Amino acid sequence: MDTGDAACDSASVRDAAATWFARVQGQTLSVAEQAEFEAWRSRHASHEAEYQWLAGLWSAADLLPRARLQALCEVPAPRHSRRSFLAYGLAASIVAVAAGAGIWMQLQASAGYHATFATELGERRTLTLPDGSAIELNGRSLVRISYEGRQRIVELERGEGMFNVVHDADRPFVVQAGAGRVTVTGTRFDVLREGDQARVAVESGHVRVQGASPDAVVNLTAGLGTVVDDRGLVAAAQPVNTRALTAWRKGQLVFEDASLEDVAAQVSRYRDKPLWVSTPAVARMRLTSVFKTNDTDALLKALPQILPVAIMTRADGSLEIIAKK
To answer: Could you tell me if 314 and 284 are in contact, meaning their C-beta atoms sit under 8 angstroms apart?
Structure first.
């Protein structure tokens, strides 16, 4: 698809951004087209800036009726998809959304921005916030977002999110996850909440992780992580493999010398019922491999070929890893 490579031609970039934006919202991209889209975004700074501008407008669209939003996001059928017609039609749709954004900007000053987003098992979703920050949600996740005055607060009630925060020294971005509180001004980091425990891993930038006590604070930079337990105690900063921890964004489970206890915990996030380990000895076995998050059955079939274990079905239908007899 021709989406306009002329980085210096603002009209072409705007048309291309509108085309990609509508297709992403309509969830019409194939795997190859998704790769093409990502390549286009990274090709020039103006591409990403234009796309994020449109995404920022769309974040205000909660104020418009759902039927109107769907109509604005409608992509013409292929038989009518001459590039000029499609680009200008989509540009007109975005202008209509901008009218809603104008209303939102007026309300933002007084009422702020408040929203709740959730994902189901196996679903991944990217949210673009009013300031241009983005959250990639893993499956079975729930976030509540509150922008009020100089506060940007996200409560991760369950699940996992990758946060890409736009720098704003006057408005710190705070993620509350269980007993942990993560404060940043601009960075990329991953937060996983399981019950009242939270794991934090930083891909770039700097974050401040606080537990239950004001003195329970750990500062993290790129490649470091920590865990806040359910009592609000913060572990010391440790080097982490952010590539493996955030592989879920590509639909992958990456295990590098991981214990089967950890493997079972990660796999359980992508199954209807949890995966168990039978004994401490089995839990301590190590695994190095890569699997797909949407096909954990393949992992369970392969596991007995890799390690001296077997898979047993429990009475409730859940599965357990046991030592091979």
So the answer is: no
Question: What separation in angstroms does the CA of 62 have from each of 22, 31, 52, 103, 163?
Answer: 16, 28, 17, 11, 21
Q: Nearest CA to 155 among 166, 165, 145, 140? A: 145
Domain that holds residue 21: 10-110
3-state secondary structure of 47: helix
Residues 229-236: contacts with CB under 8 Å, at least 24 apart: 229/179, 229/197, 230/178, 230/179, 230/195, 230/196, 230/197, 231/179, 232/179, 232/180, 234/180, 234/209, 234/210
321 touches 303 (CB < 8 A): yes
Question: What is the value of pTM for the model shown?
Answer: 0.67
Which of 59, 84, 110 lies at the terminal end of a domain, its last residue? Answer: 110
pLDDT of residue 227: 97
Is 4 inside any structural domain? no
CA distance 314 to 9: 62
Helix (H, G, I), strand (E, B) or coil at 75: coil
Residues 6+ apart with CB under 8 A from 49: none
Is residue 235 domain-shared with residue 283, that is, in the same domain? no
Most confident of 97-101, 102-106, 221-225: 221-225
pLDDT tens profile 259-288: 999 999 999 999 999 999 999 999 999 999
What does the pLDDT average to over 89-108?
Answer: 47
**100 has pLDDT over 50:** no
Q: Cα separation of 115 and 268, whole Å?
A: 28
**Is the separation of the CB atoms in 52 and 129 below 8 Å?**
no
Among the three residues 76, 110, 144, which one is the final residue of a domain in this structure? 110
Joined together, the tokens standing for residue 310 give 């077997």
Query: Could you give the number of structural domains in the chain?
Result: 3
The per-residue pLDDT for range 179-205, each reduced to its tens digit, is 999 999 889 999 999 999 999 999 999
CA distance linking residue 179 with residue 141, whole number of Å: 17
> Around 323, how many Cα atoms within 13 Å sit in the side-chain half-sphere?
8
